[in-house]
Design brief:
Helix 13 packs across helix 14. The relative contact order is 0.08. A hairpin with a 2-residue loop joins strand 19 (561-568) and strand 20. The chain is α+β, with helices and mostly antiparallel strands and 805 residues long. It is globular. The longest helix is centred in the last third of the chain and has 46 residues, at 585-630. The two termini are 48 Å apart. The strands form 5 sheets. It has a 20-stranded antiparallel beta sheet, sandwiched between helices. Strands 24-26-29-30 form a 4-stranded antiparallel beta sheet, with helices on one face. It has a two-stranded antiparallel ribbon with strand order 21-22. It is built from 22 helices and 30 strands. Among the domains are: 1-219, no CATH class; 612-795, no CATH class.
Length: 805
């Protein structure tokens, strides 16, 4: 697989599956793990990250993720992306820059697709001296070693370094060259040893790398521990952060207050944070490990309670598309926050206690917390009216309804006192605050907050004798209350049973019916694909929307995704299993957003263009009405007896824009910035306002007339229709200028048209072009790629040019 092909796989993964969120790695499917990546890891390390590299997808693999990447439709789309991106980059580049572009592409794609590891072993910093850093990077370049070395040479030559000027060092027989960097920082060396490219910051890092490449360094104990704790069959990525060492590094700069805060939060007990991902079984396994030194303290101690049980999922429907459960003891959490008040501000402690006691709220927050259970669930189910996020319903068990009811009554009473319901006979159409309704259903009271005026939601709350239920819509709560005796629960899903009985004490679990989510979201992807393809074409990247795989090609490889957070004797472990890089709903959201944003932008862009077109049409009509009365269009600006410009043409056509009263308020014999006239600037008519462009200041407009050699408004006098010998339909009368060319609407400023640069000052409001108003009153959209000779001819009123279609 070529480097650009591997890059295209990464691009496709990002486009189809939301990229690397939820730990979806770049290198899929992985190459066999290169032991050198582990051997160059420092024994004392601040940060380490390794990527196993990507190989060819095997259609016969039992792993569904690999099978998906081996599908012919996916491969065809990858090849199309590869060809289109290369073509676009090469066609738009300066020919002199092509060698540098190819060099950067070679290095970037090799780093993404080949086995690589990077580390930071040391940072020594003080307030008086620059930081001393020791770090390194090693890439297994494989068969591309010569190309990578040549690419580096090209970039160094383009940066002005001559081979004879390079400073070399020799480490254990390996020759390294020093990069030409500004003085003051640590030296940076690079070189090639066999099939490995190495980059080292500082000589100690260079020596460490060479020893690792020569097999003279054992694998560090911390890395062996990470690989054992987060074991995976075919690793793709490994990352390690030495939290304890970093805390010690920044402690001298943080101060005692920060140290006490970290101690109170329990963060000072954290030793390290690690991540490992790779292929295992049928799917993709992503794992994280928060290593704790000793017992969990501070807020981390909240996770030392009872484990989640399968029975804790009994309130979640069997057909839930997304679901999660977590154990949180609110009463214990409040107790753990008490030390934090002293660290933040001891004087606030009494205020906080009074607030929690309910002096202002009317109910005791600690009593409310003790009255609620410790297991919280959230789900969305199509059988209960939910479509992904619209059906989200949260449920928590109630230990003592008598402790919860006063809090609910106090909140409802407070809201209704602050925002009373509209009285009978209120004025129609009068907007007020959201109304809090209450209704009875199956013997329970539902409180519904109508937010339709602001967001399309109706948050609903219901307190029963056993549960507190909160949902985005009342129908979800009704469906929950209407469940029958044989209600099917998510407890029946075998993947959840296995996840909750794995190693460690489970504290939280998340589930996603990935095939169901995919069936819901993929039609939106299909709808957004043509829009995205059109946007890419406008940028010079030609990829047919028809190359998007059909739904079944992807769906047959998808399995439910399960994520757990568990407590172990050495900290906390996150484990997420899924069959494709689509991941959970949190991962799918960027996918949908990424494909729908172009669609929404196109829709908003179309509305903006329609409004701007109407503005220019209104201006053109006003110009012609002015001409009917005065036998000419208005001059670009009025002048006093000394030929000093006073007011813009935009002021003089106000009576023909139904703004006669505003026009009468101007002192026509004074300039636009006189004490009187400048007070009228904020009252700019809406016709001169550009829609959806908040960066254009209030009182400024982009609707200008061209002023320059041969243009319609070249002289002092207003032009006449009989002066336009090129034809009114071939002569530009007004333009929509770039946002940075916006002018105060009353000022005698317009577009300084330059025949040698007719495009100057145009574009930037709409994608790929701009609007112009012609002397016949019509408005047209002109592409940014218009022939400049043609545009120059359109700007002249009597140039005698022949204008074609």
């Amino acid at each position: 697989m070529t480097p650009i092909r591997r890059w295209a796989f990464f691009f496709l993964s990002t486009m189809l599956f939301g990229g690397a969120a939820q730990g979806a790695p770049v290198g899929l499917p992985p190459l066999p793990w290169d032991p050198v990546l582990s051997q160059i890891a420092p024994h004392e390390c601040l940060f380490y990250g390794a990527l196993g590299g990507s190989g060819e997808a095997d259609p016969g693999s039992p792993n569904q993720t690999e099978q998906l990447l081996a599908e012919k439709e996916v491969q065809d789309l990858v090849r199309a992306i590869e060809a289109a991106v290369l073509q676009a980059v090469r066609s738009q580049a300066n020919p002199d820059d092509l060698p540098k572009i190819e060099a950067v592409r070679t290095l970037a794609t090799t780093a993404l697709a080949r086995p690589a590891a990077a580390f930071i072993s040391k940072i020594t910093a003080s307030q008086d001296t620059p930081p001393d850093i020791e770090a390194g990077l090693v890439v297994n370049t494989g068969d591309d070693t010569a190309q990578v070395q040549q690419a580096i040479e090209v970039l160094l030559t383009s940066a002005g370094q001559k081979p004879e000027d390079a400073r070399d060092i020799v480490v254990e027989g390996v020759k390294l060259r020093q990069l030409p960097l500004p003085p003051g920082g640590p030296p940076v060396y690079w070189g090639v040893e066999g099939r490995y490219l190495m980059v080292a910051v500082g000589r100690p890092a260079a020596e460490l790398i060479v020893e690792g490449l020569q097999g003279r360094r054992p694998v560090p104990a911390w890395l062996s521990r990470v690989r054992q704790t987060l074991a995976v069959e075919r690793p793709v990525t490994i990352a390690y952060v030495n939290v304890r060492a970093i805390q010690q590094l920044i402690a001298p700069f943080a101060g005692r207050e920060s140290a006490r805060m970290l101690e109170a939060l329990g963060i000072s007990n954290i030793k390290s944070l690690s991540f490992v991902s790779g292929l295992e079984g049928e799917g993709l396994l992503s794992q994280g490990w928060l290593e704790i030194d000793g017992a969990a303290k501070g807020l981390l101690s909240l996770a030392t309670g009872e484990p989640l049980q399968l029975a804790d999922l009994r309130s979640v429907p069997r057909d839930a598309t997304v679901a999660a459960a977590v154990r949180i003891d609110l009463a214990a959490a409040l107790e753990e926050t008490n030390p934090l008040w002293n660290e933040l501000n001891p004087g606030l402690r009494q205020t906080a206690r009074a607030f929690l006691a309910g002096d202002a709220l009317g109910f005791s927050i600690p009593k409310l917390a003790r009255s609620l259970g410790s297991v919280w669930t959230v789900h969305s189910s199509p059988s209960e009216g939910g479509l992904l996020v619209t059906g989200l319903t949260a449920v928590v068990e109630v230990r003592d309804r008598a402790g919860v009811q006063p809090a609910l009554d106090a909140l409802v009473g407070w809201y209704r006192r602050m925002y009373p319901q509209p009285a009978a006979g209120a004025e129609p159409g009068q907007r007020g605050p959201p109304v809090l309704d209450d209704l009875e259903f199956r013997g329970e009271r539902l409180y519904v907050l109508g937010l339709a005026d602001t967001v399309p939601l109706a948050p609903t709350l219901c307190l029963t004798g056993k549960q507190l239920i909160v949902a985005a819509y009342p129908q979800s709560v009704k469906a929950y209350l209407a469940r029958g005796a044989n209600f099917p629960s998510l407890m029946e899903v075998p993947q959840l049973r296995a996840a909750l009985t794995s190693n460690g004490v489970p504290l939280a679990i998340a589930y996603q019916d990935t095939p169901a989510v995919f069936r819901t979201l993929y039609p939106l992807v299909e709808a957004g694909a043509p829009v995205l393809a059109a946007r890419l074409r406008a940028s010079g990247i030609h990829i047919s929307a028809g190359l998007l795989p059909e739904m079944g090609t992807v769906e047959r490889h998808l399995r439910p995704a399960v994520t757990t957070v568990s407590r172990t004797s050495e900290g906390f472990v996150l484990r997420s299993m899924q069959s494709a890089p689509l991941g959970t709903l949190a991962t799918a959201a960027p996918l949908v957003a990424g494909l729908l944003v172009p669609a929404s932008q196109a829709s908003r862009g179309a509305a903006t263009r329609a409004q701007a077109t109407n503005n220019l049409k209104q201006i053109g009509l006003a110009m012609h009405n002015y001409h009917d009365v005065h036998a000419s269009f208005p001059p670009a600006a009025s002048h006093d007896d000394d030929d000093k410009p006073l007011l813009s043409w935009r002021v003089h056509i106000l009576p023909y824009l139904e703004q006669s009263e505003l026009y009468k308020e101007f002192h026509l014999d004074e300039p636009w910035d006189s004490e009187h006239n400048k007070k009228l600037i904020p009252r700019m008519p809406v016709t001169y306002r550009t829609p959806n462009r908040p960066e254009i200041e209030e009182g400024k407009t982009v609707y200008l007339v061209p002023r320059g050699e041969g243009s319609l408004f070249e002289g002092f006098d207003g032009p006449r229709l009989q002066d336009i010998s090129d034809g009114t339909s071939n002569t530009i009368m007004a333009v929509e200028a770039s946002p940075e060319r916006a002018v105060i609407w009353t000022a005698p400023n317009d577009l300084d048209y330059a025949p040698e640069r007719p495009l100057a000052g145009l574009g930037g409001i709409h994608a790929n072009g701009f609007l112009v108003g012609f002397a016949d009153g019509s408005v047209r959209f002109i592409s940014q790629a218009v022939d400049e000779k043609m545009l120059k001819a359109l700007f002249t009123a009597a140039g005698g040019e022949v204008i074609g279609q």
